[in-house]
Design goal:
With about 190 residues, the chain is of the alpha+beta class. The chain has a domain of about 120 residues: Jelly Rolls, CATH 2.60.120. The protein has 9 helices and 8 strands. The strands form 2 sheets. A 4-stranded antiparallel beta sheet has the order 1-8-3-6. The protein has a 4-stranded antiparallel beta sheet with strand order 2-7-4-5. Helix 4 packs across helix 5.
Length: about 190
């Protein structure tokens, strides 16, 4: 058995729905597809329809888009995190987002169609899926509120405390765009801490 698969499923399930039985976890493991991605490789591109939820087993990924010719980081995912293009996956329409490996990564793809079939036969999988979506919505709301109400320094401090791995591992240019700052502003904020 793939040890990384077991660790990844356990970490992600424990973070969203820790009460899931070993049978529920086994159902998930049976449908996940392992994919190795090189640093800089794009997992999905703008204009593609997203057919998977992504579990990150190893490495770091980022979701991003282009606005006015600028690359804007939307989200970071690393070991034990999920990555999903909610609108594209749920509506089965092309996404505006792209996903790139910031490090050599191993991800597990959860085909949305198979997940939907599992939610019909397993209450636990249904609850897990609900918790993943709820978490994603909360993260989006917290990020939007941060952009609206917090200063640059507050946004950086929040990221530093909530996700120190991002600060340690992601390029500063991507961190700056994620926090809606210029790299120069980010440098001043970091210098002031």
């Amino acid at each position: 058995m793939d040890t990384l698969l077991k660790e990844t499923v356990d970490t992600i399930v424990n973070s969203r729905y820790p009460g899931m039985s070993s049978e529920g976890r086994k159902l998930l493991k049976e449908v996940l597809v392992r994919k190795e991605i090189e640093k800089g490789e794009i997992l999905f591109e703008e204009g593609q329809v997203c057919h998977h939820l992504v579990f990150v087993g190893k490495g770091m990924m980022r979701q991003f888009y282009y606005k006015n010719g600028k690359d804007v980081t939307e989200h970071f995912s690393y070991e034990g995190c999920t990555l999903i293009c909610i609108e594209s996956t749920l509506k089965q329409e092309p996404t505006r987002l792209m996903a790139e490996a910031l490090e050599a990564s191993i991800v597990y793809l959860l085909p949305y169609e198979k997940l939907m079939r599992l939610t019909e036969v397993s209450w636990e999988i249904n609850m897990f899926y609900r918790k993943v979506l709820e978490h994603s919505l909360i993260v989006s709301q917290v990020k939007a509120d941060s952009w609206r109400f917090e200063t640059a320094r507050e946004r950086y401090n929040m990221l530093l405390h909530a996700h120190p791995e991002i600060i340690k591992r992601a390029p500063l240019s991507h961190i700056a765009s994620y926090l809606l700052m210029t790299p120069e502003t980010l440098s001043r904020v970091r210098a002031g801490i």
